[in-house]
Amino acid sequence: MSRLSSVRQFPWARVVLAVLTAVLLVASGCKSNPGKRANTPDRLYELAKNSLNNGDYGNAIKLYEQLEARFPFSNPARQGHLDLMYAYYKDRQTESAIDQADQFIRENPTHPSVDYAHYIKGLVWFDRAPNILERWFHADLSKRPPIDARKSFQAFQTLLAQFPNSPYAADARQRMIFLRNRLADYEVYVAEYYLKRGAYVGAINRAKYVIENYDGAPTIRRALEIMSASYDALGLQDLAQSSNKVLAANFPDDESLHQAPPKEWWKFW
Q1: What confidence score (pLDDT) does residue 56 get?
Q2: Which of the chain's ends, N or C, has fewer CB atoms near its CB within 10 Å?
Q3: Average pLDDT score over residue span 219-243
Q4: How many angstroms separate the CA atoms of 121 and 112, rounded?
Q5: In angstroms, rounded to a whole number, what is the distance separating the alpha carbons of residues 29 and 34?
Q6: What are the pLDDT digits (tens) for 121-140?
């Protein structure tokens, strides 16, 4: 007797066949989506963490999002919020990483790891690196408006102001030095533009902003030179001489000033 005729002869066999089919479908679904096998927040977090550690950021994101949706008030879900923003960052999902960090800061202002959320925000903007054409042709980044650099600087600045003893403070401080120089370079570039076109008041304001806000940046010297030249062009000799005195006191002429600056630590190309 064939299987088909057996099913027709015994109606209960249809029920058994349907149950077996459903079991097989569920089993195959679990293999394709391991998150469905996890019926506890701890297990789902473990699966997500393993994917994150293995560099499978796309799958990690899916699992962390499942964890947040299925067990929103569990301890693993709260830890998952921190891991998820990192996974977004590594997966280059900039807006999602920033949104996740902002949400965590807003909802957990006293959490012991809220400093990490500020740090991730700084990293996301910091790593918005020049595109491949800019790297290939060694584009002068001082001529490009530093929107991302400014956002990164502000995020790290908040981290240091609110959490000076954070384990991420030292790295944030080093990155801020680079960002400070990047921001100062752009302001001096604009000041140079104004100077060349005779907009001396604009050049003075830009140069003064650099001196007041980016102390220690290598371009401070050029900012002082622009101020002196602009004051001189405006016939303000006293102010021009004052700028020259500050310039001479802080940047005496010696051989080191004529040497090429060292290559920045962050340049890989």
Answers
A1: 95
A2: N
A3: 92
A4: 17
A5: 8
A6: 999 999 875 544 444 444 55
Mean pLDDT of the chain: 80
Provide the b/e sequence for 71-82 (b: ≥16 CB within 10 Å): beebebbbbbbb
Alpha-carbon span 49 to 43, nearest angstrom: 10
Concatenated DSSP letters of 131-192? -HHHHHTT--GGGS--HHHHHHHHHHHHHHHH-TT-TTHHHHHHHHHHHHHHHHHHHHHHHH
Q: What is the pLDDT of residue 264?
A: 42
* The two structure tokens encoding residue 226: 């622009």
- 262: Cα within 13 Å, side-chain hemisphere: 5
* pLDDT above 50: residue 268: no
Count CB-CB contacts under 10 A for residue 68: 19
Report how far apart, in Å, the C-alpha atoms of 46 and of each of 30, 39, 101, 139, 201 are.
16, 12, 21, 44, 60
Predicted confidence (pLDDT) at residue 46 exceeds the cutoff of 80: yes
- The C-alpha angle with vertex 55 and arms to 52 and 56, in degrees rounded to 5, equals 75
For residues 96-108, give the mean pLDDT.
93
> Distance of CA 125 to CAs 21, 118, 173, 179, 185, Å?
50, 11, 15, 11, 18
